[in-house]
């Protein structure tokens, strides 16, 4: 055979092989990276850019990683369903996903609250450690499966503030008869100390404080609270929010919809959720320091809850836990897991983290940093 003829034919054959390979590969890629459009309903208004923004951050990560093939359209609270119905809409299949805080649904079953935050539990760092490495995600998903859902941490605010009060609260006796906007588990605890819990949407809090319909209200922390102007009508700003040491914000998916995704998309959602989880906490950590200086400059009076009040709340919280453990096996199983790690977490934290932080705080107070 003529050498040039052989090479020419081989070249043509090689080009044909490449073209054939490309033809074969394209459908395979398309099958593994299909076009999918989902809807996600948030429990938050767009005005709270940090916590609402978590849903948009997740959507952005997923879209970028799939060259726009997997799109998750984010809707603010009220655009599809009210914020406190986000998980219900996802379970029912009205939407494929929601971005919400699980304790919003604790009235249906107190187990919901354990996935987010309960009084005197873990801080944000401890909560993440328990969830990602202590089996917390799997434990909570065992419960979510009974609701037709699967969920992953996708945000955290860090320890929250203790709320805005129209008058100083120095003793447990000062709590008696106090009408406070506070929900969920914490409301059940402080109710045992004479507080009258009130359920109000964020937009209704300011006028209620202004008119004296309520005496106090908890929300989130300086960056979010500043937007609502509470310092104008309830100047005493207490800390810490012992009921939310490290509240997790979840992205929850309709379980059937999630399981119908390609494995690569399932993995991507888990990874994007974890990245969103870290991003939100980092953003709050960056924005809150400047915000607290601004609200103090505007007239907020920072006050710590007294040890007497914290101890009384801790004791009442344990009473509530004992009752729930006695009547709810799933609650007992998850709460025992959290408690088991809580002791270990604070054992180590006081050795290195706390010692370092306290020293750095003394430097800050003395003006050296």
UniProtKB/TrEMBL annotation:
<dbReference type="InterPro" id="IPR038404">
    <property type="entry name" value="TRAP_DctP_sf"/>
</dbReference>
<keyword id="KW-0732">Signal</keyword>
<feature type="signal peptide">
    <location>
        <begin position="1"/>
        <end position="30"/>
    </location>
</feature>
<dbReference type="InterPro" id="IPR006311">
    <property type="entry name" value="TAT_signal"/>
</dbReference>
<dbReference type="InterPro" id="IPR041722">
    <property type="entry name" value="TakP/all3028"/>
</dbReference>
<dbReference type="Pfam" id="PF03480">
    <property type="entry name" value="DctP"/>
</dbReference>
<dbReference type="InterPro" id="IPR026289">
    <property type="entry name" value="SBP_TakP-like"/>
</dbReference>
<dbReference type="InterPro" id="IPR018389">
    <property type="entry name" value="DctP_fam"/>
</dbReference>
<protein>
    <submittedName>
        <fullName>ABC transporter substrate-binding protein</fullName>
    </submittedName>
</protein>
